[in-house]
Amino acid sequence: MQVRMRSRSAPFIALLLASSANCAVGQGGSHQQRPLQPLGDVLHLVFDTDKDGKVSLDEVQLQINTLTMLVAGAEGQQGEDYRRILSGVKAAAPTIFDLLDGDSDQRLTAKELSYATKFEDSLKIKRDGRGGGMRDFIREIFTTLDTSEDDELTAGEILAGCKSDEVITHLSKKLHELFPIRKSPGDLEGFVRSTIESLGGNALDEASVIEGIKWIDADADGIVQRSEVGRYYKTAAMKFVELSKQVRQIGPMFAMFGGMDGMQGGGPGSSEL
């Protein structure tokens, strides 16, 4: 990924990349790559800017803004993809934060952030060809909403699912089986309902649903085919895993140099370069 660097950030990024590359060199001069830390551990390290052992939403948003600035000059389709992903992460951050915050203390512990690792694992294809769990959950959502059983979701079917307590309860149980992030499936119902409603922009009428599904409705026919969901899921999952790997590679050094503070001349042990 080629990035046009601002003069103040160039030394920081160069040092960051050099240090990250050096992590691939094992002890004793060997070139055996060291295992990367789990995603949840790296996110906790990066987001916990005040090093108090817990992460606040303000800290999350600060570091997301920093990452967004770092890829602002990335060129080509890859740059567009990363900016789109970060934009989506930023928009979803408050909702995801609340979901992970199991004890509702407005702080995320390393244990709570470990579900980021579990989420990443759920996206990966296993050696036997089976998915890690998320693909099956997406299929379950589609099948549950597809009451006509024709492998297509109309705006009416999505709308009906939003309003069905039975559907919400069923999908919450399935989500809880995959990610037991709360004590009971019932505690996840609000999240599941809001996720389905987001397809229609929360207006809950057929016109808004049709507008809301345009991002996944590749042929623009106002209907979501199972194949469209499959293609989008495959692309999104691959991009997430790729981005996760980069975060796991660069994250520890990013945290060490103090994120944006390190870039601007602050942070631990920093000086203007």
Automatic annotation (TrEMBL):
Domain of life: Eukaryota
Keyword Calcium: yes
N-terminal signal peptide: 1-26
Keyword Lipid biosynthesis found: no
Annotated TM spans: none
InterPro entries, A to Z: EF-hand-dom_pair, EF_Hand_1_Ca_BS, EF_hand_dom
Protein name: EF-hand domain-containing protein
Gene3D superfamilies: EF-hand
GO MF assignments: calcium ion binding
Sequence ranges assigned to domain EF-hand in this UniProt record: 46-70
SUPFAM superfamilies hit by this protein: EF-hand
Key words, A-Z: Calcium, Signal
Organism (species): Thalassiosira oceanica
